[in-house]
Write a structure and sequence with these properties.
Blueprint lengths: L10 E6 L14 H18 L3 E4 L11 H7 L3 E3 L12 H10 L3 E7 L1 H14 L3 E10 L3 H13 L3 E3 L1 H9 L8 H22 L1
Parallel strand pairs: 1-2, 1-4, 2-3, 4-5, 5-6
Helix pairs in contact: 1-2, 1-6, 1-7, 4-5, 6-7
Length: about 200
């Protein structure tokens, strides 16, 4: 995808495994920053009316999605039955839900980068979707294994992006955009997440 503004009517978000028992596995992004980034994407989805599929993995016990994400999405959050596979595109109910949206561009984020995110993004690209992975809203097992996953994704035609890039592309022309004020507020929140993460890694 180019750096031109993103048309919110042509995209969908796929948020994978932001749930209790999996989010905690992230070792490349601190949980607070990871959750905040995912919540920022959910807020962008609400402001721009982007349909968002919240996909979860089947674990023992109840599936508890990060509540702030569900709250931020409101009625734009589209849940699918919990997956029994790591790959959203090998789970028929999730695949059908994605196809029903009629959007050819998918912005993917989730945990773990090396597993569910990578497998779903690769399969989406193979099926003809224009896939972007939002890297700061992904959590991996280690820097080394996550870097390998990102490399494989880019070699397969998947675009890597960030929450800030997505926000900026969705905003387009600030003068003409009726949602500019809300979008700018979210963008500043994203910048604060990045600054906090940067301070913790020094």
């Amino acid at each position: 995808m180019s750096a031109l503004p993103i048309n919110p009517n042509e995209i969908a978000f796929l948020l994978i495994d932001f749930q209790e028992g999996i989010t905690e596995l992230s070792r490349t992004v601190e949980q607070a920053s990871l959750r905040a980034a995912a919540i920022s994407l959910a807020k962008l989805a609400r402001v721009f009316g982007v349909p968002t599929i919240v996909s979860t993995a089947m674990l023992e016990g109840p599936t508890l999605v990060t509540p702030e994400i569900e709250n931020a999405l409101g009625n734009l959050g589209l849940s699918a039955p919990a997956r029994t596979t790591s790959n959203a595109f090998t789970h028929i109910p999730t695949t059908d839900k994605i196809a029903s949206l009629g959007r050819k561009t998918l912005l993917v984020a989730g945990v773990l980068t090396e597993v569910a995110v990578q497998h779903s993004a690769l399969s989406g690209a193979e099926r003809g979707y224009d896939v972007q992975v939002v890297v700061d809203a992904c959590g991996g097992l280690s820097p080394r294994t996550e870097e390998a996953a990102f490399l494989r994704l880019t070699q397969s035609g998947v675009t890597l992006t960030s929450c800030a890039s997505v926000a900026g592309q969705l905003m387009g022309d600030l003068i003409q955009s009726p949602t500019a004020g809300e979008a700018i507020k979210i963008l500043f929140e994203i910048c604060q997440i990045g600054q906090s993460a940067g301070r913790r890694t020094r």
